[in-house]
Write a structure and sequence with these properties.
Length: about 260
């Protein structure tokens, strides 16, 4: 079940953009209870997808974040021969990275401050990884692109600094796809976006129209979530599971629970 339950009656739903529904509910937040239980009730209007039996549950739990990653990649419109940079190697970021690899960019670069996550990014498709705590990301990207800058940035960290770096590392006429969710406001030099570089900026929200592709990629092994889903706990150990996820204990990335 997709986490957003659209009304299918508002302006956006009638135009097929149900992820932008004005009067939606969100499972576990403003709608019905979430999935931390043995069973879950699907309310009327829920968008439900059947997961093939050949996809083990350990992989199927990555379906929602993978759909988000695919939607972000589609919004970014990566082309052959382009240099793409992904910032933020969390669960969605690492799955987005694998989806971006399927677009066959000339170079795919991953950026994160966590060395373990960068290692996973390298294993799952990144041609190059950069730790902004150790290297100047903008200078490095420009040096790799003949001082021109990258073609597209997929921003999945939610870091204000990462957005500023994204705008600086993009070439003139480049594209920024912002998927990260921010805990604080960020500011940019909008003259760079308009007068200097004429950048294209896209937002990404949820896994709109991407679940069929996500199911296909998992079933065919084109995306491998095993490196992303790092921990599993029984439901009775939910406190430990949450602590592990929140504090990135034991190099955790995606933490799951089994009811």
């Amino acid at each position: 079940m997709e986490i957003l339950i659209p009304c299918m009656k508002c302006y956006f739903c009638k135009r097929g953009r149900y992820n932008l529904c004005e009067v939606h509910t969100i499972t576990g937040i403003s709608g019905p209870n979430g999935g931390w239980a043995e069973y879950m009730k699907y309310p009327k209007g829920a968008i439900v997808w059947k997961v093939p039996n050949e996809i083990p549950w350990e992989a199927a739990v990555a379906l929602e974040p993978l759909a988000c990653g695919i939607h972000g990649v589609e919004r970014a419109n990566i082309q052959f021969g382009e240099t793409a940079v992904l910032t933020g190697c969390g669960p969605i970021g690492l799955l987005m990275l694998q989806a971006a690899k399927l677009k066959n960019p000339m170079m795919l670069i991953a950026v994160d401050t966590d060395e373990h996550r960068l290692a996973i990014a390298k294993e799952t498709g990144a041609d190059l990884v950069i730790n902004p705590m150790k290297e100047d990301v903008v200078a490095k990207v420009k040096s790799l692109t003949g001082s021109i800058g990258c073609d597209v940035v997929l921003e999945a960290s939610g870091s204000p600094k990462a957005v500023v770096q994204a705008v600086d590392m993009l070439r003139r006429g480049g594209r920024l796809m912002e998927f990260g969710v921010f805990a604080e406001k960020t500011s940019l030099d909008w003259s760079i976006i308009s007068d200097i570089k004429e950048l294209e900026i896209y937002g990404g929200h949820l896994g709109f129209d991407a679940y069929p592709q996500a199911i296909k990629y998992l079933r065919e092994g084109l995306v491998k979530p095993q490196k992303v889903v790092t921990h599993n706990f029984p439901l009775k150990d939910w406190k430990k599971a949450i602590d592990t996820a929140e504090n990135h204990l034991e190099n955790s990335i995606k933490v799951t629970m089994t009811p």
